[in-house]
Amino acid sequence: MRIKSNRIEDILKFALQELEGIYSENEIKQMTYSLITHFCNIPKTSILANNKQAVLESELLKLNFAIKDLKKEKPLQYIMGYTDFYNIKLNLNHKVLIPRPETEELVDMIIKENKGKKDLKIADFGCGSGAIALSLKNNIPDSEIWAFDIEDNAINQTKENAQALNLDINIEKKDLLKDNFSDYNFDIIVSNPPYVMEKEKSLMRDNVLKHEPHQALFVKDEDPLIFYQAIEKIAQKNLKPKGKIYMEINESLSERTKKVFKDYDTKIIKDLFDKYRFISAEKLT
């Protein structure tokens, strides 16, 4: 099937026909608007005001391929090569996890609790695209940020985004489970580690399972808290007294995760969808 013409109304009709049954009608419309804005530089307000305007033939070809990619359930952010996160633009040219709205909530919590503080030393374990580390640096500019990841794709993507945003952070390739951490003396440790159990894969959408890096999402059923335990161990020697840990968690493992931080002043916090999604743990000594 081809797009009938290069008018926006026909592009939208084509998208609705091609993607029916995969996404909701509203999802299809919103994704198509985003693609038109991205490839054709037409604002959404202009699209809605005049859907009979035409795009260039070269742009139409890009839109056709993009809609075909959506049909294969490739995430929109990967198609466009970027995502917006907490008022910064993050490139996604490498195979890293797409930052979620819940992670924006985590960042917002940290910023609100620490805005205006000077000379904070903050670690982001499992930095991925650099979303957490760079948004914290952007909003707490006097802080010293360290971003760690084991994956080359994540290290390269974080470096690329730091350069594009002109934000100066420290980026190191390290394995949380094996490498030695000593004498960092952090004020804050933050992480969105893998926490989805393999048995929960059936609950995930195909666009996630087919395209996003599984090592950033899933943990073995028999050892689902392995990264939380590793971070707690690192915090014993590298987090200052009264320093805080902020992490995303698996809702079904919230109480078990809290027990990992039993020697801390620990709170389980709900997200905007009323799910137990975060944990904050203050080191007592």
UniProtKB/TrEMBL annotation:
Pfam families: MTS, PrmC_N
Transferase keyword on record: yes
Example GO molecular function: nucleic acid binding
Keyword entries, A-Z: Methyltransferase, S-adenosyl-L-methionine, Transferase
Top EC group: transferase
Domain annotation Methyltransferase small: ranges: 118-202
EC number: 2.1.1.297
Catalytic activity: L-glutaminyl-[peptide chain release factor] + S-adenosyl-L-methionine = N(5)-methyl-L-glutaminyl-[peptide chain release factor] + S-adenosyl-L-homocysteine + H(+)
SUPFAM superfamilies hit by this protein: S-adenosyl-L-methionine-dependent methyltransferases
Annotated ranges, domain Release factor glutamine methyltransferase N-terminal: 11-81
GO BP annotations, alphabetical order: methylation
Alphabetical list of NCBIfam families matching this protein: hemK_fam, RF_mod_PrmC
Protein name: peptide chain release factor N(5)-glutamine methyltransferase
Gene that specifies this protein: prmC_11
